[in-house]
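Components:
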Amino acid sequence: MTIHFEAAELTARRAAACRAARARGLDGLLLFRQESLYYLTGFDTFGYVYFQCLVLTADGRMALLTRAPDLRQARRTSVIDDIRLWTDADGATPEAALRDLLAEFGLAGGRLGIEWHAYGLTAAVGQRLGVALDGVVTLEDASDLVSRLRVVKSPAEVEHIRQAAALADNALDAAMAEARPGAFEGDILAAMHGAIYRGGGDDPANEFVIGSGPDALLCRYRSGRRRLDPEDQLTLEWAGVYRHYHAAMMRTIPVGRAREGHRLLFDVTAEAMAACLEALRPGNTCGDVFDAHARVVDAAGRRDGRLNACGYAMGATFAPNWMDWPMLYAGNPMVLEAGMVFFLHMILFDDAAGLAMCPGQSALVTETGSVPLSRHPVDLLVAG
Amino acid sequence: MTIHFEAAELTARRAAACRAARARGLDGLLLFRQESLYYLTGFDTFGYVYFQCLVLTADGRMALLTRAPDLRQARRTSVIDDIRLWTDADGATPEAALRDLLAEFGLAGGRLGIEWHAYGLTAAVGQRLGVALDGVVTLEDASDLVSRLRVVKSPAEVEHIRQAAALADNALDAAMAEARPGAFEGDILAAMHGAIYRGGGDDPANEFVIGSGPDALLCRYRSGRRRLDPEDQLTLEWAGVYRHYHAAMMRTIPVGRAREGHRLLFDVTAEAMAACLEALRPGNTCGDVFDAHARVVDAAGRRDGRLNACGYAMGATFAPNWMDWPMLYAGNPMVLEAGMVFFLHMILFDDAAGLAMCPGQSALVTETGSVPLSRHPVDLLVAG
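Structure:
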């Protein structure tokens, strides 16, 4: 068995989920988000790319419905005892298998919360499931139920995130050792990911962002690597990942020398980062953090160069997305609490000059404020 | 601009999609699968983790609806001129923005094909979209339309897949250079991914599988790395990835020495692989390939140790899943054609003995049969 939390902690998490379900008048939960399955049972897989559901009754019974390739995986990585399989075949109906399972669990006629917002539960599969369960149970969207529990981290989770943050720092060191005029972007990626795997870490839930030259203004991965010019700029966004817990970081690194435009942008982003860290405290909202960011950037006359969000929560996430709930955007009323972890990205572009400056780091909300999780300060790195 | 195909090829692909749409009586397509967006326009992003839709009218007009972080990405990586943005906000309704866009394109009252089966279009988002478009357009599931075009590869695509296969071979060499008694699994992963990044390749659409000891019988990734025992077994499943085109491989590598049980399993899987390559030919079905696999394994009395599928198509796929359509399982009526590429995995376990043997390789369907894409033969590797 390879489970990264004490059984008692997993039991307490499930008890909390059951309490939350009962508080909503639900007889049970149909869980499809891999984040939820991992959080509640330890189950660690990418098998959610096909139909996979954890049934958790409000009184704490549970069963997993999955495919054969995940049978041993569930036995080895989770505390789930009751594992049911559905078989690939033309016209296979895992939805019918789920309906039968619900009947067996005495849930027919009941009111169930369901995670409709799960990457593995596409709209197509959701429609078939809705038909199969129509008249059998009443379904109510509960996509947020486990996410709301996950957002405040336990001490054991914070420890995993600290490990992830250390791996992210190591990846930056590895990048800086490779980045120089003429360096190949692929070598930089190899060094960064290598630092994480060699430290016992995991794949990130989405690709690292790497872009140089004009593509330093992108904030998504794309295929196709280039060599750095003698004078260049390199934007990197990456995460250390440990036990699937992410701690993201971001930098734009001038290559050869920092241009005056880079320095001007950096000053704005550094001030915005300080303002965000100040705003990231219990009692404030996610919207307050975004406002702190926007106020600094807009006052500097750089409004056109910023995005409409300046970060998001970090947690144990699975492909295709490490951006956990909630996000830091204008007006988001979510109230911050100690134990939450956020990635703060001060993404700023000067489109006319073709320049980027994007410092980012992850920070833990404490009882009294927040603390960055990285040992690297946010300063203007230049790759010699 | 970074686009990995000639504009003329992209234009021809869109023309084929429009023809297919018209043949189904559709006035246009609402495309949500990142595989489709990349295939038709070059657009290369992980922005599909949020609401993102390409509207393609049956007469060839198109517009992309996405978020601000993907504006520059779409300009740099795609041939899409018309890019519309929706903004994050509490209660943001990209669905309403899409409805307005359809009206602007003269599609109100029309019949549209939609990719309901897309990881980015979760059931929750699909339900909201269905409500927003109810009475505005008639929607018909067209999740398979572009996939059916993608399954037969163009010469340019085959060239990318050959590059991917070479990177996969390099990754095996890198793994064998690290694998030995006492080696740390994380170092092996670092070496394999490093070989791919350094060769200009991409992240895989799902994690590589790595498992040793009892976990050599898993066929999913899980977090948590160990060191190899003096006598051990190491199962690896990985893909070379180039321009997002995947060429997967798989091996179980005895460590220290091969046990007799490994050799017995290997003989069965090698015979099954030969039978599958023989069955993988134009005119046969996907089900025929699975039957070839099952016949060999079952005749050897190993039925309990096999899975219900023995492979799937390879193509340009995005997280969380590199398993492209179609899959090789019993009775799948899909007819094979030249230009298709499949990963054939002969996954075989001996649960009682705790042994695995899982050779796998990717192969191209030719006019007369099939050819493996790897330079590595399927033989029994042992890590000294």
